[in-house]
Design goal:
10-stranded mixed beta sheet, alpha/beta, 9 helices, disordered C terminus
């Protein structure tokens, strides 16, 4: 069975990374290496494509889990292991490097935690947060052999988040949590679904600059997730649905100060997204060189 799983996994990794146009070969290697079976549990499994109803597999052949589909962790609540092709695309976009520290919000049973761990390697660290106690227990068991991963069964919206190079969020939000932005190191990337519960939004990547209240930002693609507790807002959800009806590809920056201007694509409380890029500070001439 393991040989068959390895064969399926190799093809699956190649296929989803080709579809995602992932430029980093380490992403394909991660999907080829990490077995999906432990994270979804014993079959048969409930599988879905996007928002379609679940279909139950006829048996526990691992071929069924190595497809670009959602795998149910709790079908009654719509909790899934997310679409691998989408995650491959987003992970390529945020360029997780070896040795980096990653905070993952919404670990589920730990599948994408394991993928992140493969990308950072033994010199890095992954801190995974999962608010659902049962899922956190599964993730802890599934990841127990990876020494540089820890799982915390608590909310990932907290002022004591560890400093991170990447914060990777797997739960939909109506806004970026201030705690996430504050936990980023300079050059760090926050990748989260700006997609409140029930809304097809987008996976937004925000990069922390060395200084200033204007942060480079861009959407890596469309996204829809189960909602992140504490970051839901019915009015924002309505306005975001309208905003995503057009023009989302033009977003270039997140503004944390100042009044929204004509470049504003969407405004939240204390933050707004702009279609204008972050201005680059002029390079000051080196006195020694200019006077030589």
């Amino acid at each position: 069975m393991e040989d068959r799983s390895a064969k399926y996994r190799a093809f699956y990794a190649q296929l989803i990374c080709a579809a995602a146009r992932a430029a980093d070969p380490r992403i394909e290697e991660a999907f080829r290496t990490v077995r999906r079976e432990p994270f979804v549990g014993p079959g048969p499994w409930s599988i879905s494509v996007g928002s379609h109803p679940y279909v139950v597999t006829p048996d526990d052949d691992p071929a069924f889990v190595y497809q670009n589909t959602l795998l149910a962790l709790d079908s009654a609540r719509g909790l899934n292991i997310g679409m691998p092709g989408a995650h491959a695309h987003w992970l390529d976009g945020c360029a997780v490097k070896e040795g980096e520290t990653v905070v993952q919000i919404g670990a589920g049973s730990g599948y994408y935690t394991a993928i992140l761990a493969h990308l950072v390697g033994p010199g890095g660290r992954v801190h995974a947060y999962e608010i659902d106690e049962r899922l956190a227990g599964l993730a802890r068991e599934n990841l127990k052999d990876i020494a540089y991963v820890d799982v915390r069964d608590r909310t990932g919206i907290a002022s004591d988040l560890l400093k991170a190079d990447v914060i990777y969020v797997c739960a939909g939000a109506a806004q970026p949590a201030t705690e996430w932005l504050d936990a980023l190191r300079p050059g760090g990337r926050l990748v989260f679904p700006l997609a409140p519960e029930g809304i097809l939004g987008g996976m937004l990547m925000v990069t922390r600059p060395d200084e200033g209240a204007a942060w480079p930002a861009k959407f890596l693609g469309r996204a829809q997730f189960i909602g992140c507790a504490g970051l839901q807002d019915a009015d924002a959800a309505r306005r975001l649905a309208e905003a995503f009806a057009g023009g989302w590809e033009g977003v270039q920056s997140l503004r944390r100060e100042g009044a929204p201007d004509e470049t504003c694509w969407f405004a939240g409380e204390g933050w707004w997204l702009s279609t204008a890029p972050v201005a680059t500070a002029p390079i000051k001439p080196n006195a020694d060189i200019t006077q030589a």
